[in-house]
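Q: How do we represent a protein-ligand complex in a form that can be generated token by token?
A: Start from the inputs.
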Amino acid sequence: MTALSVNLNAVAQLRNRRDLPWPSVTGIARIALDAGAAGITVHPRPDGRHIRRADVHDLAELIAAEYPHAEFNVEGYPTDEFLELATSVSLHQVTLVPDDPQQATSDHGWDFRGKANFLADIVRGLQADGRRVSLFCDPDAGPDDISAARDTGAARIELFTGPYGGCIEDEDAAAHELEAMRRTVDDALAKGLAVNAGHDLTLGNLPAFKTVLPEIAEVSIGHGLTADALILGFGEAVRQYRAILETD
Ligand SMILES: CC(=O)[C@@H](O)[C@H](O)COP(=O)(O)O
Ligand SMILES: NCC(=O)COP(=O)(O)O
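Then emit the structure tokens for the protein with LD2JLWAY bound:
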């Protein structure tokens, strides 16, 4: 079974359009967890464009108090500020991502060989207190990269699935991406790393992904799931507004 961790960045970004408390990030977290999601993911960025520090604290408190079996996964580049936030709340997994502060979104995995010592120190510190660390990884990472990822001491890698998610209506390209990820996953599993995955996964591309890569421990999905939720729920919202307006 692959666990679904719902990424709430897009919900927070929608809320931040106004100085109003909706959509509520903790409210949508409740809906996701009540629907059986295994966990919640957030990726606070230095400019606070979506998830804010307060959201991380509120979600950690909600999960600890009301959803003790759910996992809270916090992603980000390990600045001092990020590490202070990640270690000041109750969470289960920290996913380290090599993002530049200016980046629009995550678009590559770690250079594991080049950053070996930097990552090993941070992984040791985070895992010493019982947090699991996952490291963002290119989908076609080679054997030397995976060995270096394992040598950091991290328990997991997270495959960057953006190139696969970007294969819109191109089955050959999608199959090529799946093959590359299959090789990376085989190597990682053989070296004792568990594998997460995420970025641009959707209802449309998840079935083939799950068929080819059934051993993925967890996928985190936000943008696509939020877009699908709008489509699945927009009609009902319109019906409820009409029910108020169309009475005489
Ligand atoms: C690490 C990763 O893959 C990202 O998907 C990230 O969590 C999304 O970040 P944004 O929501 O800021 O694009
Ligand atoms: N860790 C990856 C993740 O959370 C995916 O986010 P999204 O691309 O689905 O928004």
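Residues 7, 41, 75, 158, 198-201, 220-224 surround LD2JLWAY (ligand 2) (CB under 6 Å). Residues 44 and 53 are 7 Å apart (CA to CA).
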